[in-house]
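Progress report, Aim 2. The chain analyzed during this reporting quarter is listed below.
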Amino acid sequence: MKRIFILLLAAALCLPLLSCSTGDRTTVRIGVLREDDTSGEAKAWERYLKTVGEELGFSVDFTTTDSSSAEVSAINTYASKGYQAILLFSDDDLIASVTAAAAKKMYVTYPTGQPTDEQYARLKDNPYYLGSVAPSPDTEFRAGYDMAKFFVEGKQQRNFTLFGGAALYGSDMHVRRLAGMLAYLCEDPTTDYDGVKDRESLVVKLSGRGVDPAKFHSGTYRVVGYMDGFSFDDAFTTKLTASLEGGGTCILTVGAGDVVTKIAYGIEKSNARVESFLSGGVDAITADYADCFDLGYAYDCGKYASAMAPGLILTLAALRDHRITNADGSAPRIDMSYWVADNKQLLESMLYYDNPDSGYCYDGAVIDRYAGGTLAELVTLCGADYTEARSIRDAVHEDADASGEGSGT
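Predicted structure tokens for the chain:
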């Protein structure tokens, strides 16, 4: 009887452990709010979060929203189910969402965008707001600048078609990317846009307006056509066709480069007046773009699956009572670098070293290491390009192997 009692007691004591190591093992639950659930980037981020969640023992649940009220409703629902944190991809009203989460004592991290200065001033000292990680305005500008430079200096292009996405609606990241393209072209002494050449003046000219090709003046380059919006309807195709026929056969896009490239490819194949084209874009490092390199796409700049790691690091660090903050205790705003592939082979290498099958660049071991680290270390991780990111992963795994902890993958 005594032996049976001991066995029953041991079994009872093991029950909590079993609940944490089998199907219900996760005790940390994170809600993800997003507006996009169909793009290659959105799907890559979802796979990433689920995969590292399995590694590190947390679960993620996704809700697609289309308004501030939907965001707040989803946050309240997550709170009622015991979720501890929110990753906020959508941004209909950042202040309202953080306020709603804080009222329920839930942490919020903004891993895909940056608050405005006004928003940041209101949020930075909120104990439940953990900060943001995304390309800064400087990085967005440089992305457009470097892409234009690549096509001019690396591909000897002089005649352009520009796609401005949501610049017409004042999207700051699209305006900055577009301004970067024009700023590089305006370094030529014969070139200006509507009488200006410098970065900030270009931003002012483009915000809420986009590009008017008639206002681009140059003895060296031509901007033959410009499109914006995301309808990609017959009117869009007509404008793109006219620009390609007019000689604007280097297409620079601020986003949706895969869609624009496929439309351009269809035009090229069906229109004898368009012999060939090249295109490039600032968007995402995803498998969707690999095939585009066979169509005319030659430059892909964007976020990658592991770009979600810094937001997770901020979140898990706080949940582990090791909140990562600025020196004054406020929530950080951290700049995130893009990866750049200027050929198909490089893009395929990036995809191979950042996927659930062969392993993510910033896997569970990397997240664990940096969740226990400093803000300066996290800033370095966020600023890494592809080569540097691989070096970070290798160093983490080498340290783990040397300490006998193993790689975790």
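The longest strand covers residues 28-34. The chain has 15 helices and 14 strands. These observations will guide the mutagenesis work planned for the next reporting period.
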